[in-house]
Amino acid sequence: MNETKGDRMDPVIEGYLSYLLKVGRKKPRTVIDVRCTLRRALSRLRGGVPLWHLRLEDYLHWLEEERRSGATETSLAKYLSHVRGLLEYAWRSGHSQRNVLDGFTLKHALPRIAPRSLALEEAENLVEGTAVRGPAARRDRLVVLLLYGCGLRTDELCSLNVAHINRERHELEVVRGKGDRPRSIPIPEALYTELLAYLLELGKRGPLFRTSAKGCRLRAKDVCGIVKEAAGRAGLRWDVTPRTLRHSFATHLMDRGVDLAVISSLMGHRSPQETGVYLHVLPQRTEAAVRNLPIGDLP
Fold first, then answer.
1. Alpha carbons 70 and 289: distance in angstroms, whole number
2. Structural domain boundaries of the chain?
3. CA 281, 282, 284: angle at the middle one, nearest 5?
4. Given 12, 89, 138, 210, which residue has the most CB atoms within 10 angstroms?
């Protein structure tokens, strides 16, 4: 990570951040996010007192202050997780007598908001909008199709290599999934056929998707640009992002009755509970399921 001397904090905190990076194998961006949270906590909590010497009441006041300032439930949970990790590290390394946040969790007062996804007709229009000609047209079309057809995260798509296409099983091997959880995703047959034609032009090694100008691996901002252009051609008036396509993948599978545990596995979630947020986009499903019970047939 690039940082100046003035960016550095207490040696215990720096030791924890180094531990996350080297031992915990967290991504640099994750460590930067933790650093920002800890710097935020230091600026708002009692000045001059190490975070691992504060009381639970201090943290309760801080979280309430953040809530009143407009922090979302998700942000509050993230702040709590980051600080709790530091306190655990400080306790285990002998810098404090206890972790005052051990076992403490937020009671979410607000329901989880379902992520926005495309309607089926909008998804069809988006796919049709990728059918254009040009030197990078096939690449851009496959970027959109893999995001939607396989539910990939942006980083996962950018990290794909040609070798990650399993030609025997017609699967996509995600080696660098979130939390270092690799997984295999079946590729829809129509998409696999297009992918094979693309591979014949691309070669046998290296990144699956490259920039047109320098032949470098696509970055997240490149993927966002590709999706934005395709959405514009499809006439979609609201902001469609790569994450929108991933959410649409899950929503449309659930709409077709695919088991929640299967969707969770395909998306690389830690558990079906993480996938449960998509249940909110189908409020009629639970009602329909209950109506299917054979209560009316009882004697």
1. 38
2. 5-92, 120-281
3. 145
4. 89
